[in-house]
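can u do me a favor
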């Protein structure tokens, strides 16, 4: 009976979290075509590769944690390895944020591109921080089964996804406007 109530509560929370009055994430504005020298395009591509390499660090840990967490949220048993998986995902997200903060936007780029790239980078850093905070909440939920922790996890995870999507869209829009292949 206790598990049935927990599952019902989790289902209600999941349904309610999809019905918020928060506005949808702001889509990246259409950026007019940007003309860059071949050297500046190379610098832009190198910056994009640096960002992608940092993202790849955290991506695997986040996906693994996500798979394990789906089982827990659906009422499944907490696996012995879940705390370690959550700790690893959190550490990878924090590391990704730190690494992104160290990445320098190429100075030679036009100011408007540098501003947009900085916005995208800042959004990615904030997304990884929110992912890490969501793992704190789900770790509490896994140990205490407090539904408020699950609600906090969902809130932080949704925030992280929104930030990540918005930041990625900005970077992609810049790359498209500059005529650089994705």
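np, heres the sequence
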């Amino acid at each position: 009976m206790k598990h049935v109530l927990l599952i019902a509560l989790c289902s209600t929370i999941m349904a309610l979290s999809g019905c918020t009055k928060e506005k949808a994430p702001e889509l990246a504005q259409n950026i007019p075509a940007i003309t860059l020298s071949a050297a500046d395009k190379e610098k832009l591509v190198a910056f994009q590769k640096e960002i992608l390499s940092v993202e790849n660090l955290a991506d695997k840990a986040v996906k693994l944690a996500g798979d394990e967490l789906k089982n827990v949220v659906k009422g499944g048993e907490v696996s012995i390895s879940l705390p370690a998986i959550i700790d690893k995902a959190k550490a990878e997200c924090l590391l990704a944020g730190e690494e992104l903060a160290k990445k320098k936007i190429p100075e030679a780029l036009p100011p408007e591109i540098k501003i947009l790239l900085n916005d995208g980078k800042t959004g990615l850093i904030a997304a990884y921080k929110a992912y890490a905070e969501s793992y704190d909440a789900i770790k509490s939920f896994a140990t205490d089964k407090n539904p408020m922790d699950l609600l906090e996890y969902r809130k932080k995870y949704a925030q992280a996804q929104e930030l990540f999507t918005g930041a990625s869209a900005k970077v992609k829009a810049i790359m498209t406007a500059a005529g650089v292949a994705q």
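Residues 61 and 89 are 5 Å apart (CA to CA). hope that helps!!
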